[in-house]
Amino acid sequence: MACVVIGAIITGMLSVVSGTPGEVHHIGFTVVSRVTWGLRGGLFPVALRTFTSIWWFGIQSYWGGMAVALILGGLSPSFKHMYNPIPESSHITIQNLIGVIIWYILYIPLVLVPPERLQRPFVISSIAFGATLIGLLAWAVPTAGGGGPLFHTQNTAPSTSYSMMLGITSILSAWGAGTIGQSDWVRYSQRRYYPMLSQLVAAPLMITLCALVGVVVTSSSYQILGTLYWSPIELLGAIQEHYNSSPGVRAAVIFAGIGCTCAQLSINVLLNSVSTGMDMAGLWPKYINIRRGAYLLAAFGLASNPWQILASATTFLSVISFLGVFTAPMTGLLLADYLVVRRHRVKIPDLYNGTPSSIYWFWHGIHWRAVVAFLVSVWVFWPGFIMTMKDPKADNGWVKLFNISFLVGLGLGFVIYLAICVVSPPPHYKEGDPYLDDDLYCKNVSAVAPTDGVEDGKHDENVTVVPVA
What we know:
By secondary structure, this protein is mostly helical. It has helices at residues 2-25, 29-37, 43-75, 77-80, 94-111, 119-144, 160-180, 183-186, 196-225, 232-242, 247-283, 290-303, 306-309, 313-341, 348-351, 368-379, 382-390, 397-403, 405-423, 438-441, and strands spanning 442-443, 464-465. It has a two-stranded antiparallel sheet with strand order 1-2. Helix 6 (119-144) packs parallel to helix 9. It starts with a helix and ends with a strand. The model is unreliable at 444-469 (pLDDT under 50).
């Protein structure tokens, strides 16, 4: 649990500092990337985050499909035991495949709804999932007569410090893509520091509480069922089997399955679809708006075969570490450039000036310092990744370095970029304002966030950008 607490706190801190450009200058991640990478080079981190979101969307969608299958199994036990014609090597059953299809049918209409109108439904969703966790906890601990055997297990890890770093990295890798894109959300804040309460307190607290409940329920249920279930969805299915699908248990499983389904819908619509839709709209604004980007994400997420990724814990952790190899150095670059090199200075007009006269044009629109720092920070993890893919049981220095890629990569990206900038400072890095002058740039900004093309591909008419004289 110490790893979870530390990882959650670091996640909250990264959310605050990564979201500072959006909070101060009211610009999203797509535009923030241009400051560090250049007007053309800024497309690379946006494309990279889109790639990362595809994998996460696929995984979350598959979990959502499993939750739907759980509901159907509670409604009809015969569905749970129906013949499965799909080969076992595919790592997906006909029940879960049907669940995924139904989950997608539920998801697609939600993309049509502007995000600001989903606040109440998603609050209800959070309450439903919270009730599911409390219900599992209320069943597991009294039935097992305590917290279960995992709390009395001796530590057999050869290195406690490395195990701690590995646990912290797992938390950071899981939330890394979400922290680097905080500017997409906090840019709508009406006052500075308003988002900090949720970033520094609420998010780490929820991460820690969910993990704590998960560990306690897993340990207690192991004593009851004799099998370790780390997924609440799989655990609920096992509970139904343990009690021979009694009516009361089936009802509880159905309600719990609804809570899990709503949670996965909320996560994918807000955390993945909207932000990735913004990214895709930034990559191809002529053809893609946020809604179309969300639909493309849904298609790519399904094509990523998430059931293969979740087939084993080793594969899942390897994929998470692989994604952290890229997102961590990218985060380190952004923080070093914005916080230390430029000291919050951003020249807003030049971020929208796609000509060599922009101070962010650098070399043909690409900032070579960011490219070099990123490549140097990333290559050290590739040997370990390749060895892990060839032999999941491989255990050497390269593999261990790869397993803690987020922690190391974050520091490498930060330090290497600063070192390059000390030797060769970026041109015009002292130009710009440390904050956005709303009276100069924006007028008639409504309290409601602009749609950004969610509904019709056009910007909200309530926002008027005033050009600099």
